[in-house]
Amino acid sequence: MNIAKIQSKEFMPGCHGKMVHGEKLTWAFWDVEKGSVIPEHSHHHEQIMHIVDGKFEFTVNGNTQIYNSGDFVHIDSNISHKGKALTPCKIMDVFSPVRKEYL
């Protein structure tokens, strides 16, 4: 399979994703428009976010940092987080277990 063959879907305003699911994880490929906001939320999934390209303001458990191309961050289960694309961004997320709402 090639990622280019997966249909992109707008999961929230300005956040377009392609999802790959395994038995125990979801791998998300995001194109995020500049200025798009990921509202504060938490989930039972463990998450690793990797900024492939762009500049992304991300708050984890009240701690805000600016992440740039090549940076990554680990988010434990049930930890509050939110973000904002300061530039157009390409982001990869890995979630475990599978994000069923992204199926």
What are its keywords?
single chain, 103 residues, mainly beta, Jelly Rolls, 4-stranded antiparallel sheet, 58% strand
Task: Give a verbal description of the structure.
The protein is mainly beta. It has a single domain (26-102), classed as Jelly Rolls. Helix content is 0%, strand content 58%. It has no helices and 10 strands. The radius of gyration is 13 Å and the shape is globular. The model has no long low-confidence stretch (mean pLDDT 97).
Low-pLDDT sequence parts:
none
CATH architecture: Sandwich
- Kindly name the structural category: mainly beta
Give the C-alpha Rg: 13 Å
**What order do the helices and strands follow?**
EEEEEEEEEE
What is the spatial order of strands in the main beta sheet? 1-2-3-10-5-8
CATH topology: Jelly Rolls
In brief, what are we looking at here?
This protein is mostly beta strands and 103 residues long.
Helices and strands in order, then pairings?
Blueprint: E1 9-12, E2 15-21, E3 26-32, E4 37-41, E5 46-53, E6 55-60, E7 63-68, E8 72-75, E9 81-85, E10 89-96
Antiparallel strand pairs: 1-2, 2-3, 3-10, 4-9, 5-8, 5-10, 6-7, 6-9
